[in-house]
Design goal:
This protein is α+β, with helices and mostly antiparallel strands and 362 residues long. 27% of the residues lie in helices and 26% in strands. It contains 9 helices and 17 strands. The strands form 3 sheets. The protein has an 8-stranded mixed β-sheet, with helices on both faces. Strands 4-5-8-7-6-9 form a 6-stranded antiparallel barrel. Helix 1 (9-20) packs antiparallel against helix 2, helix 1 packs antiparallel against helix 4 (182-200) and helix 4 crosses helix 9 (335-349).
Length: 362
């Protein structure tokens, strides 16, 4: 008999709506409103900040505070220059991949609404194959079908307009979720599901739980830097995505081995507090939750770094979701991994004791 999914029809309906909504760095608020509306029945109150980070709180009066965190933003482009004949050149907003841009449809966000465009590219017939140029930041461009700059501006498009891809959520081969911006809208979804399960299972935590959906991770962990100073947590468990390394052109000797469907990835890095990480590993083993390990050298490159080194040091750990094709429009994760990340965070929270310092000297 197949195991029962912990994801409900309501969960998956929210996930699809949440992923399909655009939330580029600096413009996350519509997605944050959706996220808070979904969480409202399961939490006691919300905190928001000036730049758009949203925090759902359970047991807000408790002195001891635990954060579970994902980030809400997605990569995008900015309009940087409009030519006299109406073409747009762009700069990155986050780690947008110039190589996948040619032939992609785009949404340009203006005060008049969405304006459609395409990343154009010269036809194969007219390119010199002996000296063929690859897509680069200085040669990719967007075509709105306009004759000149004035026509572009009449549509409401100007320098500074943000640009996203419209690619929407679908399921591949029954178990694989595919969409742009799974990095890291999946994190926000998974921590929301932890809150739902705690509520439905009537679990009473001996600490305040701060379910945190941070903004601006893609441009340097900025939202987490801001919100950790406000919350001042004692513990932070961060969830983000990490690379599945089993597809072509990835060197496992450099990137390690990580595979879709094989479980959450528990990080080893200086920013990861070892006793907290050991608690998570032991929780996985005790509850028979499959997991993988990853070594991350000097920095994790995630919001874990922002929490760990804040407020005089916060015991922090990272549980990652394996993902293929990061920062493309066909990012892919496996449903079993999604459910096992949720289970691992949920079960780990039940092992944390109020007042635990995770000190090496106790």
């Amino acid at each position: 008999m197949p195991k029962k999914s912990i994801l409900t029809k309501k969960s998956l309906t929210f996930l699809e709506k949440y992923l399909n909504n655009a939330a580029p760095t600096g413009y996350e608020w519509d997605g944050q409103k959706m996220w808070m509306d979904y969480l409202k029945p399961y939490v006691d109150e919300f905190i928001t900040d000036t730049y758009g980070t949203a925090v759902a709180v359970i047991n807000p009066k408790a002195e001891y505070k635990v954060v579970i965190e994902g980030h809400a933003d997605e990569i995008s482009w900015y309009v940087n220059y409009i030519t006299d004949n109406g073409l747009l050149y762009v700069i990155r907003n986050g780690g947008s991949d110039h190589q996948i841009a040619p032939s992609k449809i785009v949404n340009i966000h203006t005060k008049k609404g969405i304006v459609k465009g395409v990343f154009g590219w010269p036809a194969i017939h007219v390119r010199d194959r002996a000296k063929e140029e690859p897509p680069k930041l200085d040669n990719i461009f967007i075509d709105l079908g306009c004759k000149n700059k004035e026509e572009v501006e009449k549509m409401g498009v100007h320098v500074g307009c943000v640009i996203t891809y419209p690619d929407e959520f679908h399921i591949l081969n029954e178990k694989n979720f595919v969409c742009r911006a799974l990095d890291n809208r999946m994190g926000g979804f998974m921590i929301a599901e932890v809150a739902r399960l705690l509520h439905e299972d009537k679990k009473k935590l001996p600490f305040g739980l701060y379910i945190t959906n941070s903004v601006q991770e893609e441009i340097g962990l900025r939202g987490a830097e801001m919100i950790t100073q406000r919350i001042k947590p004692n513990v932070a468990i961060v969830t983000d995505v990490t690379h599945d390394t089993t597809t072509p052109m990835i060197d496992k000797k450099k990137e390690g081995h990580c595979e879709l469907g094989s479980g959450p990835v528990i990080a080893y890095a200086p920013a990861v507090q070892q006793k907290l990480r050991d608690l998570i590993v032991e929780t996985a083993e005790k509850n028979k939750i499959p997991f993988q390990r990853s070594a991350l050298s000097r920095a994790t490159g995630t919001d874990t770094d922002a929490f760990a080194y804040s407020n005089g040091g916060v015991a922090s750990a990272l549980i990652s979701l394996p993902l293929r094709y990061m920062h493309t429009t066909v990012e892919m994760v496996h449903q079993d991994d999604v459910e096992n990340v949720i289970k691992l965070i949920y079960e780990s929270l039940l092992q944390i004791k109020s007042g635990d310092t995770f000190s090496y000297f106790d």
